[in-house]
């Protein structure tokens, strides 16, 4: 009789433990899924837009600097040709090519962000989200199977 009572108590305890473990496993899987969805939204609506705006601002600034450099170059080269003695005219005038290259690099940076980096990041985050959905489904199925086993053990012990 004592062995039957101990077996019954063990079965009841095992069932309770499994129920608690299932709650914990399901909660953890749900949290992973929620965080994956948040990461995707954050990137699409936050990080990507912020980086795109930053680069766009850099491009605008580089264009303004290039325009000023071109204006200065045109003014300086015209002024030197007219008013300076021939010896002074032989000095090289600073070219705006550095500013032109900065502008090109920043436009390239934006192109890479829009055409490659953002697409890859979104694909990765979407994949993570889908995988965590599948994981949640697996955890729930595993929990149901474990509970069924422990319920059967409890019924057998009664």
Shape: rod-shaped
Overall tally of structural domains: 1
The SSE string, one letter per element, is HHH
Poorly predicted segments = none
Gyration radius from CA atoms, angstroms: 34 Å
Offer a few descriptive terms.
158 residues, mainly alpha
Provide a compact summary of the structure.
The chain is mainly α and 158 residues long.
Task: Give a written overview of the molecule.
The chain is mainly α and 158 residues long. The chain has one domain (2-62, 103-157). Helices cover 93% and strands 0% of the residues. It is built from three helices and no strands. Helix 1 (2-83) runs antiparallel to helix 3. It is rod-shaped and about 120 Å long. The model has no long low-confidence stretch (mean pLDDT 89).
Helices and strands in order:
Elements: H1 2-83, H2 86-89, H3 97-157
Helix pairs in contact: 1-3
